[in-house]
């Protein structure tokens, strides 16, 4: 088990990260780059290729404790989701799509974009949900984790990626897309 660099699957560049779904994460220390004020625009996006869609899969998240976290991923119950929870308040800034189930074994682009007081979630450039954003500052003190995401059921749950991730990024201060778009055709940095 574990995380591996895979050359058998990639969206760009000839390799990607493969996660086997068993408590594997890529982690980077907490940074103010991952703090979002109530007025900050931001974009969190990447490419995923799920081995299967029978269980929840985390793409990216940050966990301080059960009351302070964010997570983006796929839930077999809710489909695509994101949660931003501050001091136990998760009611305002979360989205769960219904009706979009990513195809197993195929690459797809996912993005959460916050612009002003609106947040949108996109899959393959198509907006799947839009919701107002409650003005809360997020300053979670925990490592940023790729391949993992906390999410809400009747309490906090944890989802680990089983499949491939490529080109995952956090862009603070910019809402990269505000309407439907064509997903990137080249790696980040070459756009």
In percent, how helical is the residue content? Answer: under 10%
Helix-strand sequence: EEEEEEEEEEEEEEE
Give the radius of gyration.
15 Å
Strand order in the sheet with the most strands: 1-2-15-4-9-10-11
The termini sit apart by: 34 Å
Brief overview, please?
This protein has 191 residues and is mostly beta strands. The chain has strands spanning 4-6, 16-20, 26-28, 42-50, 57-65, 68-75, 79-85, 94-96, 108-115, 118-123, 126-132, 144-146, 148-152, 156-160, 162-172.
How do the strands and helices of this protein lay out in sequence?
Layout: E1 4-6, E2 16-20, E3 26-28, E4 42-50, E5 57-65, E6 68-75, E7 79-85, E8 94-96, E9 108-115, E10 118-123, E11 126-132, E12 144-146, E13 148-152, E14 156-160, E15 162-172
Antiparallel strand pairs: 1-2, 2-15, 3-12, 4-9, 4-15, 5-6, 5-12, 6-7, 7-8, 9-10, 10-11, 13-14
Describe this structure in words.
The chain is mainly beta and about 190 residues long. The protein is about 0% helix and about 50% strand. It contains no helices and 15 strands. It has a seven-stranded antiparallel beta sheet, with no helix packed on it. It starts with a strand and ends in a 19-residue tail after the last strand.
């Amino acid at each position: 088990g574990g995380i591996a660099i895979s050359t058998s699957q990639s969206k760009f560049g000839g390799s990607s990260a493969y996660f086997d779904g068993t408590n594997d994460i890529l982690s980077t220390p907490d940074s103010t780059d991952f703090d979002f004020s109530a007025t900050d625009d931001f974009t969190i996006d990447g490419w995923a290729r799920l081995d299967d869609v029978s269980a929840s899969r985390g793409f990216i998240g940050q966990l301080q404790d059960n009351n302070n976290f964010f997570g983006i991923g796929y839930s077999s119950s809710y489909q695509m989701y994101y949660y931003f929870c501050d001091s136990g308040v998760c009611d305002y800034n979360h989205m769960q799509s219904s009706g979009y189930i990513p195809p197993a074994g195929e690459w797809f682009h996912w993005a959460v974009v916050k612009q002003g007081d609106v947040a949108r979630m996109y899959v393959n450039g198509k907006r799947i949900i839009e919701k107002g954003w409650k003005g809360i500052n997020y300053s979670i003190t925990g490592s940023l984790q790729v391949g993992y995401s906390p999410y809400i059921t009747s309490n906090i749950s944890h989802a680990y990626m089983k499949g491939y991730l490529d080109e995952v990024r956090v862009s603070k201060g910019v809402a990269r897309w505000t309407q439907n778009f064509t997903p990137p055709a080249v790696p980040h940095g070459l756009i």
